[in-house]
What does this fold into?
Amino acid sequence: MAQISSLSALDPSAYDIIIVGSGPAGCSLADRLSAKGVSCLIIETGLNAYNQDIQTAYTAMDTRGHFGDQHWAQHWIRAFGGTSMVWGGWCAPLDEQDFEAWPITRSDIRPYYDVAADILKLDRVINSYDAAYLPGFRFKPFRTVYGAMRFGEEYQSFLTAPGSVDVLLGVTVTALQPDAARNRVVGVGLHQQDGTARRVSLRDEQRLVLAAGGMGNAQLLLNPAPDSETGVGNETDQVGRFLMEHPHYINTAALVGRRRLMPPTPPANFGDHVQNILADRTTYAKTGKLSVAMELVERELNPRDRVERFLRDKYDGEFIAYNINIRSEMPASPDNRVTLAPSRDPSGLPLLKTMCMAGSDTVRPIFAVLEALGKTVMARDDGRVFIHNETLVSNPSGGGHTMGTTAMGSDPRSSVVDANCKVHRYTNLYVAGSSVFTSGGSANPTLTIIALAARLADHLTGAA
Ligand SMILES: Cc1cc2nc3c(=O)[nH]c(=O)nc-3n(C[C@H](O)[C@H](O)[C@H](O)COP(=O)(O)OP(=O)(O)OC[C@H]3O[C@@H](n4cnc5c(N)ncnc54)[C@H](O)[C@@H]3O)c2cc1C
It folds into this structure.
């Protein structure tokens, strides 16, 4: 097999694992499982090529709060390869402190970051490079990639080469049927683009993994199970809560002064990157415990600025100036959430409604980190930090990073999946993707998504 021609040609009992969604999470999971000889089926709403009608009909959303009306819909691509069709390819691992609220530590995921770098064909040094900068700060660049990996292109072999991964395109998973005790998913509803629908049963040992993106995973678990008012996995009303982005405040400050403010140069095998500085552990603990990535973009002196001219003359030939772009962490708030809208997509799944505000608890720590940087720079007589207040209190843009909607935790009253990405109380239902992030740090999420998918593959095969 490889690509299955239609819903009627599907034999669902033939697979060990059924994966919903073919983005970086779904493809990486299938890749690692198939390498271990496990048979997988990927079910994907989209087609091999992007289709605007499918995109519009399946992602329409009622959006409230920050980030803009089309934000979440535009960042959930419905095609083979998922949102990697448009992603930028920037990569960095989360920090140890980013895992403080998670039921796993960075050491649990550390080996899988290297697997993720291998999958993305990046040097593993991106996971270990972390250099000193000024006292209280570190230099931790984001790897940037020109021509980022498109998972749909990279994994065309899933469609063409008979192996242990089969793919059903143009089919949406619409419903999860639990058993009477709500401990297992016993069946799933499927809908093909031409309107054909089918309900299939799961064998006892079969497992189902939702890898449908930050919105899609929540949508499937929010959708009330047949003959019920509650979605599978939403028994404690936690699905869809804790929606997070990485608020971007571009050109929101400036770092101006002596040439020795230049950050270090990473090793050559690190590759292309943006220059990012971060608070170290001590500063982080004092400034509100949110990760604030400060990208330094070198620029010319602003000749209209009196203080800059003064500093240029003072440091005589040793002058350097940077604009600072902020990419920040949002606190996980239960009130930032995804819920179901009254209207439905063509498969019959309820469409989504979002409410997400990046409030003062997001912005205050950014001010605090920038002020701490400014104090350090002044104390060393190295220059000044200027903060552009108006930019920092305006509507931020985001990175297209949809996180937190099926959060990981050990308590089912405040989370949806456990430390192994298994939905609480269900023995055969798992989630892959940034919807499981308990907190988001400030690093782009996809490297961590792939690392978690690789870890999940090992868990499902008994290797982790
Ligand atoms: C413009 C842009 C730039 C970005 N740049 C970066 C970057 O530089 N670095 C970074 O780390 N991240 C970046 N991202 C984010 C990155 O694209 C996502 O983190 C990543 O694609 C998520 O992978 P995923 O597999 O979890 O979900 P997705 O890639 O969204 O894939 C989910 C798939 O599931 C399918 N699906 C959903 N529901 C169903 C259903 N019910 N039945 C069947 N199939 C379903 C969808 O059609 C989709 O194909 C960017 C995103 C955007 C939009």
The radius of gyration is 23 Å. Residues 187 and 200 are 5 Å apart (CA to CA). The mean pLDDT is 96.
